[in-house]
Amino acid sequence: MRQDLASTDLPFLKMHGLGNDFVIIDSRGRDALVSPELARAIGDRHRGVGFDQLAEIRDAEEADIALDFWNSDGSRAGACGNATRCVGRLMLDESGRDSVSIRTERGVLSARRAGEEVSVNMGHPQRMWDEIPLSHPVDTDFLPLEGEPVAVGMGNPHAVFFVPDIRDVDVAGRGRRVECDPLFPERTNVEFAEIRARDEIRMRVWERGTGITLACGSGACATAVAAHVRGLTDRTVRMEVDGGWLTLDWREDGVWMTGPTQTVFAGRFDLSFLERV
Ligand SMILES: N[C@H](CCC[C@H](N)C(=O)O)C(=O)O
Hints:
There is one protein chain. By secondary structure, the chain is α+β, with helices and mostly antiparallel strands. The chain contains 6 helices and 17 strands. It has helices at 2-5, 36-43, 81-95, 171-179, 217-229, 271-275; strands at residues 10-17, 20-26, 53-58, 65-71, 76-77, 99-104, 107-114, 117-121, 150-153, 157-162, 189-197, 200-207, 211-213, 236-241, 244-251, 254-259, 262-269. It starts with a helix and ends with a helix. The structure holds 2,6-diaminopimelic acid (API). 2,6-diaminopimelic acid (API) is lined by residues 20, 52-53, 71, 77, 79-82, 156, 189, 207-210, 216-218.
């Protein structure tokens, strides 16, 4: 029976960047196949495979590839820095080049080798209330919420709180509440950051549509931008997240993020799994 199904098996790759974990499906040469239902089914850590985000690779005309991102609740994410670095790693290895271009909802991003690690230019941060987006005009440097977070868009919305001691923060409780605050019409990702030095930040994250994750690349970029905007750090910082360390560098051409990537395993979904979706 399984052999009859073999031709309809769907291969995927499980990768992670600092424990921010992804299922990657390569749809080059065919139509996109991921739907909200399929994303939810694969994203279920008990009945499916489980992931923080699903990334679907697609053909692109103006870049080497295009990438679509899905959260485990079936919603779309406009940006996903760590998955961009992971797929960047695949494309750098596949092409043998030092740089590849990746089209995402927020534009064409560039991924480069950085020794054993991968750097991605996540583009310019969005600071206008309607770009992020927020529901009405407010000071994006000090949002009118308890704790006065900074609002930053990196192709997806982020609210960054500065806290004296990260160990005292109820990330799930506060994250869940802020994610759905009416100030954010498309909900928001929520970061909590403790400044350790002008070049070092400790950050924990609650991701929109996913919950607590060990790392969030776009969230790390948003946090570095927010800290610099508030005058707390320089333009280059090292950031410790639950899954390890990233380097963020806010340059003239955008926010560069550098860190490790890892392939966990290659798997296949069989037709019976897909038919249950
Ligand atoms: N983990 C991702 C971000 C996912 C953001 C997603 N939760 C959203 O709805 O915007 C990253 O490395 O940037």
